[in-house]
Design goal:
There is one protein chain. The protein is mainly α and 213 residues long. Among the domains are: 87 residues, Chromosomal Replication Initiator Protein Dnaa, Chain: A (Orthogonal Bundle), CATH 1.10.1750.10; 56 residues, Arc Repressor Mutant, subunit A (Orthogonal Bundle). It is 58% helix and 0% strand. It is rod-shaped and about 135 Å long.
Length: 213
């Protein structure tokens, strides 16, 4: 006889209940959740230090390119508004055919300032004031004498054909220097031949360097 005790059941139902209890699956073990480490946030790389400029010309070029340029027509509009405030004469009068002394002087002052502070050609300035370019040239001459100035001296004293030619040369030079166009592109834009454009550019360069008439 073995020493293992044998349980006695009072009934078949009790024995079946004990059997079912032995076959019941054990309760699941609840394990504590481990704390996950916080994700490491990527730190953006510091911005590179500004590149030093080799000379003042490079700095000026970078500075000029960083600032949006105001259109010459907008500058002209502001000049006219300022002259109107200073003189008390309206824009309608300044642009009208009236030639009385106060109106005429205010008009000439506005024309002269626009010629000094913008790259607009004489015909372009004339269209603002409903006048031809010879009237604009006369106003510039008068105001140069009054202010002892030298605004648009490259055309003062020229005949109308010379004025037109020099205005063309100035426009060619501006498109070449400021807009970076070559002579072929400038010729297409201005409706001229490439030879005419190249010659105009050469004359404008010579004049700026003091080597031409």
């Amino acid at each position: 006889m073995s020493g293992v005790a044998v349980r006695e059941y009072a009934s078949a139902e009790e024995m079946l209940a004990a059997y079912r209890a032995r076959k019941r699956p054990p309760a699941p073990v609840v394990r504590p959740k481990l704390a996950m480490p916080e994700p490491v946030k990527s730190v953006p790389a510091p911005a590179p230090a500004p590149k030093p400029y080799d000379d003042l010309a490079q700095y000026r070029e970078a500075y000029a390119n960083a600032i949006p340029q105001t259109a010459p027509s907008q500058i002209a509009k502001r000049i006219i508004e300022q002259v109107c405030i200073e003189t008390g004469i309206s824009q309608d009068l300044i642009k009208s055919p009236i030639r009385t002394n106060p109106v005429s002087q205010a008009r000439q002052e506005a024309i002269w300032r626009i010629a000094a502070d913008t790259t607009l050609s004489l015909p372009q300035i004339g269209r603002i004031f409903n006048r031809d370019h010879t009237t604009i040239l006369h106003a510039i001459r008068r105001m140069n004498d009054k202010h002892d100035a030298m605004v648009r001296v490259h055309v003062v004293g020229c005949t109308p054909p010379e004025i037109e030619q020099r205005e063309f040369e100035a426009e060619v030079y501006r498109l070449f220097k400021d807009d970076g166009l070559d002579t072929q592109q400038i010729a297409r834009r201005l409706g001229k031949t490439q030879a005419e454009t190249a010659n105009a550019l050469a004359r404008a360069r010579d004049r700026l360097m003091g080597e031409g008439p």
